[in-house]
Amino acid sequence: MKRLLWLDVTKGLAILWIVYFHFFSTYTKTPSPMDADFVSEVAGEHGWASFGASAHTLAKLAWCAVSQCGFHAVGLFIILNGWALAQATTRRAAQGPMAWGEWYRARFVRLYPMYWVAHLVYLVSPFVARLEPVDGRIVWSLLGLRFVDIGMNFMYLNAAWWYFAMLIQFYLLFPLFFAALQRLGPWKFLAAACGVGMVTRYLLLAVFQQSGLWVLGGCAICRLPEFALGMALGVWHSRAPERIERFLLGGAGLAAGLALYPAALLTYRGLIPYIFSDLATGVCCFLAVTGVAGLLSRLPRVAKVLALVGAFSYGIFLTHQPYVIWLGQRIEEQPVWAFLLCVVAALAVLSAWGILLEKATNALVDKLLPTKKKAPATQA
């Protein structure tokens, strides 16, 4: 399957935004991803006065707003995962009966080795934040079963690894999702998946009052609406690629994402609205970032670099967070201009490091476990 440049550019922008978000959160000591109270604290702490009394407040607010939304890019990756899996599997199913055993093997061979390498890198690397001791919980982490005793294990060692625990659930359940997609069609499947996901979120949050970690991804069904949207988009794109790309890349999708974003952010106000927050913000982020990717794809050199980052976003995602926390803690007292310079350098170095690790890991796995056909690149 030929890779779509704009999709890789979208992933490249998204992973850089996530890395930046974790850096920003450490630098500003943001207590909560959507806590507006910290904005006033940032006002006088990091040199904003140097931007001028009349302009620095608006600049500060815009900077904080864009920075705080970085974690929404996780929803974008969930959508793109559904998209890629649905398209690839639909194409394979058209050739004959699915060999689901081989399907699982190909994908888990891509998932687990890089995940284990990320653990090894964390254990041996200098310049990483070590916020917890290495103890018996690492076994659950290595297995990917971070939802076991979720309060103790889900964010253990490297908080970004929670995504892996959700991802393996989606992969395990994918044959059921794919069968439903084929039987119902994309529209009915999407409606049913959204219903199941929202009801599950409501039950966990409002009825059983469980930890929000389950809704974040400890129970993958809670993120099924985004994943199902991606699967539906994958089918629609296969049927009418020009129509889908015209909307996403031609400006209409970008305008819609930006226009709807303020309404999506309102879903953080209250328990019931929060049930819809991950889908709402994920869709808006997807539309906005994809729209920007469409614009940047017209710049060949920029697009080439971002596409490379996007193609190896999985390795970057799995390795970046302990480094940016370590660095962010050491520049907390520095002015904004110094922080921004560090951001540029850190994004470049961590991207190169993640790409190198994933390339080397994939090459080693291909040598040790050769396959006739490679699985599509895993998306962070």
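Next protein, fold it too.
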Amino acid sequence: METRIETENLSWTVHSLPDDNSDFDPEKMESMALSHLQAARSAALLAYAPYSKFRVGASVEAEKGGESRRFSGCNVENASYGATMCAERVAIFSAVAADFRNFSLLALSTLDSADQASLSARSPCGLCRQVMSEFFSDQTVILIDGGKDDAGRDCVDITTIDIVLPWRFSL
């Protein structure tokens, strides 16, 4: 069941929240969400997408020993397609390479999809979903950029890995 919440700067579509977020306060999360959405949009501007012309950016928040850091990534295409890296995996792998493996948030932005295009056109691919399921807990928040609404607010879909990849494979 989806829930729509509007704040001054954001229009949220809540698909799912982590179990411990029953007291989700969009006003408190707004600043962090906007910051990560901007980081994802900025990363998307750096994308190398000469084949698909579909620029994607991602921003993850990861923690280690009480320290929290943001890592960004953009998609990098290759003529062989199989060697292409998606923005989500670039951001996640950058965090892992820096020994940060406790993820609390992922923000994803697709610059070249129409504002508020279908969620399926803006959501992670299957490979990225599987990588996310390897590193994300049930408490990791996933934000998917939806552009701007008619009132000029940023639109964002908020969900968790259980919705993005139900029945995920794990060992």
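About the second fold: The chain has a mean pLDDT of 89.
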